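S.,

Sequence below, as promised.
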Amino acid sequence: MERRGSLHLYKRMERHGPVPRKEGAKSSTHTNIHSLLYERQLTERHNSEMEEKKKKKKKSCLLSDGQR
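The prediction came back faster than expected:
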């Protein structure tokens, strides 16, 4: 499996030349790890925001019930 992938890349480089990389780009595994970490941070932030909204709703409901 590994050879097939590298052979494919070799053939591609033969046809199109090396894949252009952004300057200072890290390896794909490095960027994958960072994108996964970033994704997790976003989901955690989203979840915490949703929990805060729920708490605020509960508080506002309790306040409105107490006023009646």
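Helices lie at 2-16, 28-67.

Coffee later?
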